[in-house]
Specification:
By secondary structure, the protein is of the alpha/beta class. It has a single domain, classed as NAD(P)-binding Rossmann-like Domain (Rossmann fold, 3-Layer(aba) Sandwich), CATH 3.40.50. It is 56% helix and 12% strand. The chain contains 11 helices and 9 strands. It has a 7-stranded parallel sheet, sandwiched between helices. A two-stranded parallel sheet has the order 7-8. Helix 2 crosses helix 9, helix 4 packs parallel to helix 5 and helix 5 runs parallel beside helix 6. The chain is flat and about 60 Å long. The relative contact order is 0.13. The model has no long low-confidence stretch (mean pLDDT 89).
Length: 320
């Protein structure tokens, strides 16, 4: 076979793969419009949630409603938004807040669930009460908020609508010292995949955002009690600015992406762990097919590095 014939064959194979992935991907790409719409953000009194509120305002959203637990922080953010105090762990509280927000500002087009809590510590050293606090906030809190939001987002006249859930890179790969946190964040993927199947006929898109460590007040608190091994492992990926994370997240949400990463490490982890998750973007579908094997090889080296660090640290500790 001549060089020209081989190049033509290679082109045809590549073209066929791209065409197949463009045709077979589902759901198809969508565009979520923020301008002129009512957007609700939980956990929006600080950090990523507050940064998202600022970006959505710049997009021209008609109304932004923030739902968060701390009334004082909400009061500080209330100049440009509607604010409602609620604890996501309490369904009645969340339901009341969504009802009030939608009663005052109309049905919602986009719900962004950016609340969350992390209390680092090894499984043995973390109390059941602390674990339940994380599970109740990160998992049940999302279930409560989505349950409260559904009647109003299903009645929205704007299509497509969006529900965006904030997981974490620790919701894609387990990290030493984050057992309950990772468990609560991993569970969100199952929730999002099922909801996307159940809500696709209503043209409601689910987005699952995977931020890395982010410079927020909550992260500063985490650092105070985080085990040294957790810092070493999570430190392999640099923390990001809250506004940068919010900007990347909003870009993915507006494009109707299911898996939304915020940096290169997030892209690699999302690709390796794509599994049976939906992929609306044909360029991302092509990337997943072409690079999954390579990224998996890289992952082997990363994981080996983590375990080596853990074992060496434990050996040194045993000698003392």
């Amino acid at each position: 076979m001549s060089g020209v014939s081989f190049c033509v064959l290679l082109f045809l194979v590549g073209f066929t793969i791209v065409a197949l992935l463009w045709w077979i991907r589902f759901p198809k790409a969508a565009s979520i419009v923020m301008r002129g719409q009512h957007v609700i953000i939980t956990g929006g009194s600080s950090g990523i949630g507050l940064a998202l509120a600022q970006l959505v305002a710049a997009e021209g959203a008609a109304v932004i409603s923030l739902i968060a637990r701390d009334p004082e922080k909400l009061a500080a953010a209330q100049a440009s938004v509607n604010a409602y105090s609620a604890d996501v762990k309490d369904f009645a509280s969340v339901k009341k807040a969504f009802e009030a927000a939608c009663s005052e500002s109309g049905n919602v087009t986009a719900v962004v669930l950016s609340h969350g809590v992390a209390v680092p510590g090894t499984f043995e050293d973390t109390s059941i009460e602390t674990m339940e606090h994380m599970l109740d906030t990160n998992l049940k809190g999302n279930i409560h908020a989505i349950k409260a939001a559904l009647p109003f987002i299903k009645s929205s006249k704007s299509a497509p609508a969006s529900i965006a859930i904030f997981s974490s890179q620790a919701g894609q790969v387990g990290v030493y010292g984050l057992a309950a946190y990772s468990a609560s964040k991993f569970a969100l993927r199952g929730l999002a995949e099922v909801l996307q199947q159940e809500l696709i006929s209503r043209n409601i898109r689910l987005s699952l955002v995977y931020p890395p460590d982010t410079d927020t007040p909550g992260f500063a608190e985490e650092e105070k009690t985080k085990p040294e091994l957790t810092k070493k492992i999570s430190g392999s990926s640099k923390s990001m600015d809250a506004m940068e994370v919010a900007r990347n997240a909003l870009c993915g949400i507006k494009a109707g992406q299911f898996s939304v990463h915020c940096n290169f490490e997030g892209l690699m982890i999302s690709t390796v762990g794509a599994g049976m998750s939906p992929q609306p973007s044909w360029p991302r579908a092509v990337l997943e097919v072409m690079t999954m094997g390579l990224f998996r090889i890289i992952a082997f080296f990363v994981v080996k590095g983590w375990y080596t660090t853990i074992l060496l640290s434990q050996q040194e500790k045993a000698k003392k």
